[in-house]
Amino acid sequence: MNIQFTCNQVESLIGYFIEGKLAPSLLEFFNQHIKKCPKCRKKVEQIQKVMAKYGPNPDKSKSKPDKELIGSLSAYMDNELDTGENVKIKKMTILNPNAREKLESMYKFKRLLHNAYEKTKNDTKFDYSKSIIASINEGQSYTTTYFRNIIILFVLIIIAVITGLIYLYL
User: Where are the domains of the chain?
Assistant: First the structure.
């Protein structure tokens, strides 16, 4: 029997191949396709590199994700990666508990920021700049109005002090 896999079939089996869970009969056909197809071979190599760096590793199980991983996750969340990189990140986060935990915390933080922004946006309905511009356009000088009020208050305080002094000495 001469079975040949298509690129789509090989792509769907790459995860099983990387994990070593591919049945021996399928592994033979998988390897035949990889030997003939440079495109699929390159995909397998790239995923193996990512898995070697970020995959489950007993020594790294308690270590924190590195800056490159955090940058990749951030770019993934913002849809800045191409399809191949998205697939790598998805597989990495599925297989690496630290990466998955970091991605989940980044999503929570993003939701908190969005909720805070929406609340702030709804709380600030009054636009002070428009009222200032309107009073200037009406002929009132914004600074003159407040300056006049301060002068009047100052004069009233002086009169009260003088009146108090006169009352005390009389």
Answer: 1-54, 55-125, 128-169
